[in-house]
């Protein structure tokens, strides 16, 4: 597969309330690859899980000459975290969410576990491509609430995930693929951004400032911090370069 040329900008910050940053991200523009993880499990352990996940997925996808799939790479990351826990009892309870995207042959392929997200802005409209693996999303799916915002207003906690790496040996990875169009803009983020900044505000910000990716990253980070910055905040903006 031939990588699609992409422009990338990213930011990660510990936020206002956390002592350390348990998020991890990596981007490889020449390979059309972006990986982002949000660690869980308390001081140091969550950070270990997220970095191990990003490193494992990145290494496998970049170096595996047999052409590893996204699903296989995420499953390998899950195994790596479980093996680390087996070797270090103090790592018990650590885990991570993960979202990974590859831009190749004018398509974006993505995989995720947990509530880290990938969005697409197309024609001025923002669409969430991934579906959160979380309690609050399940309540919406079951019809108890019309939207996540309504569930949050009712007091439902939005930080309880139903899937994560490092929790069980069998991991259900959700994948997707779609064509890339000229003018598309993609946002990968941890819930430190999506929980703090409403989708409508994300859409408006991306529409207003999407031409300068670095500046737009700064604006999104400032918005999340301005809304309280209760969690670590990580985001990656990706603009595919489609030649006519």
What does this protein look like?
- The protein has one domain (6-130, 162-240): Phosphatase 2c, domain 1 (4-Layer Sandwich).
- The chain is 32% helix and 28% strand.
- The chain has 7 helices and 10 strands.
- It has helices spanning 45-63, 70-87, 135-141, 148-153, 191-194, 199-209, 213-226; strands spanning 6-13, 23-28, 33-40, 95-104, 107-113, 117-122, 125-128, 174-179, 185-189, 233-240.
- The strands form 2 sheets. It has a 5-stranded antiparallel β-sheet with strand order 1-10-9-6-7. It has a 5-stranded antiparallel β-sheet with strand order 2-3-4-5-8, with helices on one face.
- Helix 6 (199-209) packs antiparallel against helix 7 (213-226).
- It starts with 5 loop residues before the first strand and ends with a strand.
């Amino acid at each position: 597969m031939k990588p699609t040329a992409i422009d990338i900008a990213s930011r990660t910050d510990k936020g206002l309330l956390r002592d350390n940053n348990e998020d991890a991200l990596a981007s490889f523009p020449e390979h059309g690859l972006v990986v982002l993880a949000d660690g869980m499990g308390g001081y140091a352990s969550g950070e270990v899980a997220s970095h191990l996940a990003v490193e494992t997925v990145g290494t496998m996808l970049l170096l595996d000459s047999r052409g590893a799939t996204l699903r296989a790479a995420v499953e390998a990351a899950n195994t790596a975290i479980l093996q680390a826990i087996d070797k270090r009892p103090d790592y018990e309870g650590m885990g991570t969410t993960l979202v990974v995207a590859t831009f190749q042959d004018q398509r974006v392929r993505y995989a995720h576990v947990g509530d880290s997200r990938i969005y697409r802005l197309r024609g001025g409209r923002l669409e969430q491509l991934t579906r959160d693996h979380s309690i609050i999303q399940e309540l919406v799916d079951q019809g108890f609430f019309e939207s996540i915002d309504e569930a949050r207003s009712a007091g439902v906690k939005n930080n309880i995930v139903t899937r994560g790496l490092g929790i069980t040996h069998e991991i259900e990875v959700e994948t997707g693929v779609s064509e890339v169009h000229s003018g598309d803009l993609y946002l990968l983020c941890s819930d430190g951004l999506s929980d703090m900044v409403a989708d409508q505000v994300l859409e408006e910000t991306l529409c207003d400032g999407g031409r300068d990716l670095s500046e737009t990253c700064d604006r999104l980070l400032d918005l999340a911090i301005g809304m309280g910055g209760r969690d670590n905040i990580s985001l990656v903006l990706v603009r595919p370069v489609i030649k006519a």
